[in-house]
Amino acid sequence: MTMTQQDAAAEAVPASADGEGHLAEHDATVREAHRRAIGDVMLEVDNITLRFGGVKAITDVSFNIREHEIFAIIGPNGAGKTSMLNVINGFYHPQDGTITYKGNVRQRMRPYEVAMGGIARTFQNVALFRGMSTLDNMMAGRLTKMHGAAERAFDKSLADIPVVNFLTYPFFWTADFLMDAFYWGPYQKEEERHRRRVEEIIEFLEIVDIRRTPVGRLPYGLQKRVELGRALAMDPQLLLLDEPMAGMNVEEKEDMSRFIIDVNEEFGTTMALIEHDMGVVMDISDRVVVLNYGRKLGEGTPDVVQKNQDVIDAYLGVSHDRPG
Amino acid sequence: MFYREAGQFSTTYSQDQGIWSIKQDKWATFAIIGFAFFIIPLFASPYLLTVLLQLLVGCMAALALNILTGYCGQISLGTAGFMGVGAFAGYKFATGMRVLGGDGGAVTAATELVPMIPAVENIFVAILLAGAVTAAFGILFGLPSLRIKGFYLAVATLAAQFFFQWSFIRFEWLYDYASSSTIQAPRLSLMDGWVLPFKVPWFTWDLQFFWGTVDFTMKVSGPGYADKLHQYLIGLIFVVLFGFIAKNLMRGRIGRSFMAIRDMDIAAELIGIRPLRTKLLAFGISSFMAGIAGAMTLFLYLEALEGAEAFFILDSFLFLFMVIIGGLGSIMGTYLGAAFITLLPIFMVNFLPWAGGLVGMSINTATVEHIQLMVFGGLIIFFLIVEPLGLARLWQISKEKLRQWPFPY
Q: For residue A144, which of A194, A110, A105, A107 has the smallest C-alpha distance?
């Protein structure tokens, strides 16, 4: 959060701050002021079709995700939600259609290239590095950002010169490797810099006390939180959350929802999430897209989607009043 | 009671990420290193030094394997093969790639291709170059790891092991066309002609203080020429140095990327780790160290060896045992495991006949060997069942207990 936004927030609520009994209202107003305006289209999914052999997982789905918004993908099991995230991640390559990310039509990409572009991801069934501590898991999330001092010098000076870069890169790489090997000055500073950022996230997620615990020993709810932390450590522009609240109790769900909203507000991260808890989805998301059997059923704000008859028939259902 | 971290605070993140979590560990480490460098030379017999050299080679090889298998999760059964590459590469560098006047004597075009390379006379350079060559081979044989994992990769590295064993006999240039297909470490010395005009006890290993001169010449290699003590010191330098390097690499970004690949390669790729690069780096680092272990075997430990026999498939398995018993993914465990596997047979060879004598039984060497194998088998099963994380985990548990001692909680 930058100073200007804080100031803006303070200015937005000059009167209610000193009034008694309006704390909740005050909070809501501050939130509204903190909230970054939903901006331009960040990721555009255009007519994506994904087949596995004869099975069509996704058929002609299009939607877009805008900057700073919380975007939900919902639908019954097998609707192609996770496949959609996998396509965005570069894990699956669609047979048809294009993905435009930050204004550039994306070519066929490997997952790590997508990750370097600023798209992070959490998984439906926790995919943490079980042998490592919480801290190491989150430091692993910083790996794309950790460049050696020599590599940074290379990027500044020689990376753009065609043949020279090819010839000189090995020397810079070796220099970095040796600094790593002896944990020498510049590398130590680099490590410290990233540790500081990770510690911020650890504090933000309130997992300070489990910093050194191997994640395999943590309870499920905390593992989910650490996984969110690892994704946040990547400083992503777009964060894909695959069922962040699956298998949690109400309290844990509330915690997680709060973290999601806070992340969105404080870091301005754009979010795309898959979730089955309709209460949560309708509460926290700005827009929702509904998939069914790989096709798009509807799209819009939660209110609009809730009233869409196709969506009600296929997924939401209607509440039946108890007879008598 | 003395093993407490009370009053020790990390004030910076660098301190917090240090090698030793508590100061007593640090002192203990330096004490052990100091003992190995300065005290052991005072009393060690050539036999003990030979044993220790074997231990140092084992430490180095196990370290190499632990980085690849324990940290990066790529199972390798080719450690001995890569060590062989290191040994032959070291030999070729130290003899300047030329065919010496062995009993084969056939000079072919292949040897004429590289007549201009001067023989490497510094043992450090020779061993490091051997490591570099082995690293190149390791990266080459690591290429299949992108596509195959687990047992299948183990079989691929087994193929590498067999290929190397075969080539150590088949390519006669490697052993200078000698009919016995053995190589002998060339004579190498360090600090030749460096003389001090007075004596210092620790440099001369005797107690005639200050009287006479000190000859610094270290006879580090060559059968019948080398001094076991000097060889031991050189080996110790390598093991300590590379233990330090391995620890640093594994606690930093490279180690984290290795462990990420090991624990969940799909998630690792989605947070931006390049799988092929990372795996090849692991193969590179690991075989670099394996190559050094092989060159140490040639120059420091065996001095004359036959490639296919000295770097046999069984040695590969032995290194795997070291790593499993010591603890996968632990530098400390590597050393514990290597010490355990190396010293246990030697202990039994000396101990069993004596113990047999006590009860009026004569135990011959063949029986000792059989008992050794039985004990090994039993121990490996024991460790796999009771403590799959190995001696390192036991050590960690005992440290945690020690911190609270004498109170149970």
A: A194
Cβ–Cβ gap A192/B12 under 8 Å: yes
Q: Which residues of B touch A110 (CB under 8 A)?
A: 269
CA B408 to chain centre: 38
Contact B270 A132 (CB under 8 A): no
Q: How confident is the model at residue A15, as a pLDDT? A: 41
Interface contact A259, partner B, CB < 8 A: no
By CB atoms closer than 10 A (0-12, 13-18, 19+), residue B401 is exposed
In tens, the pLDDT along B137-189 reads: 999 999 998 888 888 999 999 999 999 999 999 998 888 888 888 999 999 99
Question: Parallel, antiparallel, or unpaired for β A287-292 and B304-306?
Answer: unpaired
Q: Is residue A322 part of a domain?
A: no
What is the C-alpha separation between A201 and A208, in angstroms, rounded?
9
Q: At A119, list the tokens.
A: 């798209």
Q: Are residues A114 and A154 in the same domain?
A: no
CA distances from residue B232 to B45, B53, B61, B63, B332 in whole angstroms, order as listed: 12, 6, 16, 18, 21
Of the partner residues A111, A136, A183, the one whose CB lies closest to the CB of residue B270: A111
- Same domain, yes or no: A111 and A256: yes
In 3D space, the residue among A127, A110, A117 whose CA is nearest the CA of residue A244 turns out to be A127
Position of tokens 């190149």?
A: B136
The pLDDT of residue B396: 86
CA distances from A119 to A113, A173, B105 (A): 9, 26, 64
Q: Which ipTM was obtained for this model?
A: 0.85
Nearest chain B Cα distance for residue A79, angstroms: 23
Q: Which residue of A has its CA nearest to B18?
A: A183
Residue A29 lies inside a defined structural domain of this protein: no
Residue in B379, B391, B378 with CA at minimum distance from that of residue B339: B391
A112 in the same domain as A245: yes
Contact of A199 with chain B, judged by CB distance below 8 Å, is answered with: yes
pLDDT digits (tens, 9 = 90+) for A132-181: 999 999 999 999 888 888 888 888 888 888 888 889 999 999 999 999 99
Closest CA to A219 of A105, A94, A119, A128: A128
For residues A107 and A241, state if they share a domain: yes
Number of domains in chain A: 2
| DSSP E strand boundaries for B247-370 | 304-306
Chain-chain contact of A140 with B270 (C-beta, under 8 angstroms): no
**Chain A, nearest residue to B269 by Cα:** A112
Enter the tokens of residue A324: 């008598």
CA distance A283 to chain B (A): 29
Q: Cα–Cα distance between A205 and A228 in angstroms, integer?
A: 9
Residue A216 lies in a domain: no
Best residue of B271, B288, B393 to probe chain A, by most A CBs closer than 10 Å: B271
Q: Do A129 and B252 touch (CB under 8 A)?
A: no
| Alpha-carbon gap: A184 to the closest alpha carbon of chain B (Å) | 10
Three-state secondary structure call for residue B142: helix
Q: What is the pLDDT of residues B89-122, one digit of tens each?
A: 999 999 887 665 444 444 444 455 555 677 888 9
- Domain with A82, as residue range(s), is 35-118+237-317
Picking from A115, A130, A131, the nearest residue to B271 by CB comes out as A115
